[in-house]
Automatic annotation (TrEMBL):
It comes from the Bacteria. InterPro entries: Acyl_CoA_acyltransferase, Bact_Acetyltransf, GNAT_dom. The lineage of its organism: Bacteria, Pseudomonadati, Pseudomonadota, Gammaproteobacteria, Alteromonadales. The keyword Cell inner membrane does not apply. Pfam families: Acetyltransf_1. Signal peptide: none annotated. This is GNAT family N-acetyltransferase. Keywords: Acyltransferase, Transferase. The keyword Transferase applies.
Amino acid sequence: MGIIAAKPRDSLNHMSIRPIIASDWPAIMAIQAQCYIELIPESLEVMQSKWQASPTTCLVVEQAQHVVAYALVHPWAKGNAPSLDTEIAHNESNSWYLHDMAISPAAQGMGLGKQLLEHVINQATQLSKNGIGLVAVQGAKGYWQQQGFLPEAPSESLNTALNTYPPDACYLYLTLD
């Protein structure tokens, strides 16, 4: 396991986005630990439950044969979120939930997040999903709003889930056409 910083001469053309495979998990867990400093990282079992619930929508970005980013995306009802650090099971919904998207600190600032999000949105659009929800943490609300995600009025069940996140957590939703 190791996360290698992309060299400046590496271009985004050498990047690939693909579904997660079992051997990606050490790199994914390392990226999670590097990126989430205001909350306790979720366990491997919890992270893998998202992948097992929807293996075709959980993705990694690979550069020079190294995983440098990931996104855990799975079906979930609009206006709701799973509690943090809780295993989930497969469920049917016409909306997706972007549970986690993280870029290795060594690969930040290269536009990978925007490309990964665009890939997820395109995939959801092709599958006629209504939209994508997420919980913004660590001051990321502004970033997600710049990407078109908007706040939703929280329900009682959403408030219960949000109580498991840091105090600044905010549910946002992107409606797809």
